[in-house]
């Protein structure tokens, strides 16, 4: 990421502990004090609150939402906010609050599933390429290079087009979106992991473990993986923001999550015919989307700083 | 230098072949029978058979792939649309491409001008209010997607103030004149995100350079701020910005899918989405190949330009530097 967070050298707050062992290749394993440093950063703490709120709303959505997301309340088309519909209704008389709540569920589900996919594949490919090197490395990196040459969203659009996602059932469309975003997302993580592994592989503690007779498997599991945790955590957080944005974009275009599922992107598209007189229909899902994306970006920045306090003053 | 360019070219060909293979078989394996899409599910067996033969759908897949690639290489023929009476895909592309390219180039110029100047301004005033405001705005530019920014700007400048047209496209089909006002909002919406990214990158790149010794020397020998900034600093801060301009072009092309759809501008982005919604596979495949080719060429050009600007890159080969700014 093009990071522009250049802070002028400011001394660490008194009493702040600097991580004991920070590899020059990147971030230290999450250690004691990370959490405290994270929460002391007001922007990161606020982002965490926003995301926790989204998650707490999304998980019990069926119990929490006043209406089912596709339920039409006859006679209440495009109704303004009222006791019956706290945030009003859309053109099909569906409760906006309920749809926003279910929309959070869709966004977070897609983000979690895609990141699970990306981490699994990216970690496997990156570890194999970085640890074994040679021809395997060259071949794997050639593939990631090709995929990386294209904007993820464009690849996802074309994949979904070729899969025929626009005519899929809603549940199937959700799966297709996850597959498309996962398939286009893993190469950048694989690159990151590979780079880290290349650095870690040459470190003294790995050499020492090898000298003591540790097997490759043990070295990867006990010595490499724990050191990958921090950069992975940061990368996954920031990437999740991109995934949520991408899902909304695809759904906006009509080739992502299909009706009647209330993806925020779809809600924004559905609002286009009415927003001149009912801007609420456009603004509410947009706010939910932008807030979530911003919070994830800020949390990622905050995590990076909290995991590596020494790097804070680096450009 | 020639060797460097030829090496890059040699890589581009297998890449494109692999992409054409993927594009073709993704379409082939996608659910549903293309004949249903072309002739409709209720068509008679005879009609279906005729359609199947006319589109070559009765041949084995590998042969069809061979024919597909062969026709493209030999005749520049990307097949025919399943709709519009079987209009050739190339005709559809030729119709939409100039619009999309014009919009993308306009947005690229806009985001370079805005991004680089805002980035320099921010770097010069690092951590003071102008910098904070610029970077705050840039962050919003990254977090607010174009399909939100578009409606908001249209609501404001199109519907409420009535200064600019709400949708449509500037080359009027009736009098074939160019109406530039139609391009204003789409270009701004399309450029917003990349301006923000370029501004952030320019700022950090400039800050890195401004700390260098030769900048201090230039200042010490009495050069004015302008000369230091533009002659010394920007020149060295520029290669990473150029790299991103290359990737930006890619984002602008994909961004045009959303912007063209929202403003109903008949470029290739709009056309692709229509084809996807109709499941018009030959058009989707043609668009995918066209976009892939554009990307490979743009990356090639950026690589070569980078090699010219920064001779070190020529020696180290690809060495992962291209993504340095990402």
From TrEMBL, chain A:
<dbReference type="GO" id="GO:0005886">
    <property type="term" value="C:plasma membrane"/>
</dbReference>
<dbReference type="InterPro" id="IPR050366">
    <property type="entry name" value="BP-dependent_transpt_permease"/>
</dbReference>
<feature type="transmembrane region" description="Helical">
    <location>
        <begin position="146"/>
        <end position="166"/>
    </location>
</feature>
<dbReference type="InterPro" id="IPR025966">
    <property type="entry name" value="OppC_N"/>
</dbReference>
<feature type="transmembrane region" description="Helical">
    <location>
        <begin position="106"/>
        <end position="134"/>
    </location>
</feature>
<comment type="similarity">
    <text>Belongs to the binding-protein-dependent transport system permease family.</text>
</comment>
<feature type="transmembrane region" description="Helical">
    <location>
        <begin position="172"/>
        <end position="193"/>
    </location>
</feature>
<dbReference type="Pfam" id="PF12911">
    <property type="entry name" value="OppC_N"/>
</dbReference>
<dbReference type="InterPro" id="IPR000515">
    <property type="entry name" value="MetI-like"/>
</dbReference>
<keyword id="KW-1133">Transmembrane helix</keyword>
<keyword id="KW-0813">Transport</keyword>
<feature type="transmembrane region" description="Helical">
    <location>
        <begin position="232"/>
        <end position="257"/>
    </location>
</feature>
<feature type="domain" description="ABC transmembrane type-1">
    <location>
        <begin position="104"/>
        <end position="300"/>
    </location>
</feature>
<dbReference type="Pfam" id="PF00528">
    <property type="entry name" value="BPD_transp_1"/>
</dbReference>
<keyword id="KW-1003">Cell membrane</keyword>
<keyword id="KW-0472">Membrane</keyword>
<dbReference type="GO" id="GO:0055085">
    <property type="term" value="P:transmembrane transport"/>
</dbReference>
<feature type="transmembrane region" description="Helical">
    <location>
        <begin position="277"/>
        <end position="300"/>
    </location>
</feature>
<protein>
    <submittedName>
        <fullName>ABC transporter, permease protein 2 (Cluster 5, nickel/peptides/opines)</fullName>
    </submittedName>
</protein>
<keyword id="KW-0812">Transmembrane</keyword>
<dbReference type="InterPro" id="IPR035906">
    <property type="entry name" value="MetI-like_sf"/>
</dbReference>
<feature type="region of interest" description="Disordered">
    <location>
        <begin position="1"/>
        <end position="21"/>
    </location>
</feature>
<feature type="transmembrane region" description="Helical">
    <location>
        <begin position="43"/>
        <end position="65"/>
    </location>
</feature>
């Amino acid at each position: 990421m093009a990071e522009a967070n250049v802070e002028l050298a400011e001394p660490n707050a008194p009493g702040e502990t600097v991580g004991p062992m920070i590899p020059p290749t990147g971030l230290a394993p999450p250690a004691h004090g990370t959490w405290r440093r994270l929460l002391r950063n007001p922007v990161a703490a606020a982002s965490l609150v926003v995301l926790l709120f989204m998650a707490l709303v999304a998980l019990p959505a069926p119990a929490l939402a006043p209406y089912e997301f596709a339920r039409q309340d006859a006679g209440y088309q495009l109704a303004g906010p009222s006791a019956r519909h706290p945030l009003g209704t859309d053109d099909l008389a569906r409760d906006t609050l309920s749809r926003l709540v279910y929309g959070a569920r869709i966004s977070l589900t897609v983000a979690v599933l895609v990141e699970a996919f990306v981490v699994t594949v990216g970690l496997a490919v990156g570890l194999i390429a970085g640890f074994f090197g040679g021809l395997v490395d060259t071949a794997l990196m050639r593939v990631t290079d090709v995929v990386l040459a294209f904007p993820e969203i464009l690849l996802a659009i074309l994949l979904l087009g070729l899969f025929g996602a626009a005519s899929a059932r809603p549940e199937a469309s959700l799966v297709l979106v996850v597959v498309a975003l996962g398939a286009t997302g893993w190469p950048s993580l694989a690159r990151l992991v590979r780079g880290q592994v290349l650095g870690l592989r040459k470190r003294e503690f790995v050499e020492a473990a090898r000298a003591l007779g540790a097997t490759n498997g043990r070295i990867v599991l006990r010595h490499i993986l724990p050191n990958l945790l921090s950069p992975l955590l940061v990368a996954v957080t920031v990437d999740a923001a991109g995934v949520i944005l991408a899902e909304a974009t695809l759904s906006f275009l009509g080739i992502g999550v299909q009706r009647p599922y209330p993806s925020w992107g779809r809600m924004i598209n559905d609002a286009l015919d009415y927003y001149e007189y009912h801007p609420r229909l456009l603004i509410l899902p947009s706010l939910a989307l932008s807030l979530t994306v911003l919070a994830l970006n800020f949390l990622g920045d905050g995590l990076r700083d909290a995991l590596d306090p020494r790097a804070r003053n680096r450009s | 230098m020639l060797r460097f360019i030829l090496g890059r070219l040699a890589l581009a060909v297998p890449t494109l072949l692999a992409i054409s293979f993927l594009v073709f078989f993704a379409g082939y394996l996608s659910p549903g029978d293309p004949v249903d899409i072309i002739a409709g599910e209720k068509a008679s067996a005879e009609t279906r058979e005729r359609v199947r033969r006319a589109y070559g759908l009765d041949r084995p897949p590998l042969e069809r792939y061979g024919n597909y690639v062969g026709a493209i290489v030999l005749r520049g023929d990307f097949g025919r649309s399943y709709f519009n009476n079987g209009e050739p895909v190339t005709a559809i592309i030729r119709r939409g491409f100039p619009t999309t390219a014009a919009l993308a180039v306009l947005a690229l110029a806009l985001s370079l001008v805005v991004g680089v100047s805002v980035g320099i301004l921010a770097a010069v005033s690092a951590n003071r209010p102008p910098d904070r405001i610029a970077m705050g705005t840039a962050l919003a530019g990254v977090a607010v997607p174009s399909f939100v920014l578009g409606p908001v700007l249209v609501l404001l400048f199109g519907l409420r103030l009535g200064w600019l047209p709400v949708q449509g496209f500037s080359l009027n089909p009736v009098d074939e004149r160019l109406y530039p006002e139609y391009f204003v909002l789409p270009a701004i919406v399309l450029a917003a995100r990349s301006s923000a990214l370029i501004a952030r990158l320019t700022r950090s790149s400039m800050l890195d350079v401004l700390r260098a010794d030769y900048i201090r020397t230039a200042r010490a020998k009495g050069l004015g701020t302008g000369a230091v900034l533009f002659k010394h600093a920007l020149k060295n801060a520029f290669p990473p910005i150029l790299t991103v301009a290359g990737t930006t072009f890619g984002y602008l092309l994909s961004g045009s899918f959303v912007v063209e759809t929202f403003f109903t501008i008949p470029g290739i982005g709009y056309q692709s989405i229509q084809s996807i919604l109709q499941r018009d596979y030959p058009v989707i495949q043609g668009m995918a190949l066209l976009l892939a080719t554009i990307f490979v060429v743009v990356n090639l050009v950026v690589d070569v330009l980078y090699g010219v600007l920064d001779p070190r890159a020529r020696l180290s080969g690809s060495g992962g530097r291209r993504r340095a700014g990402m």
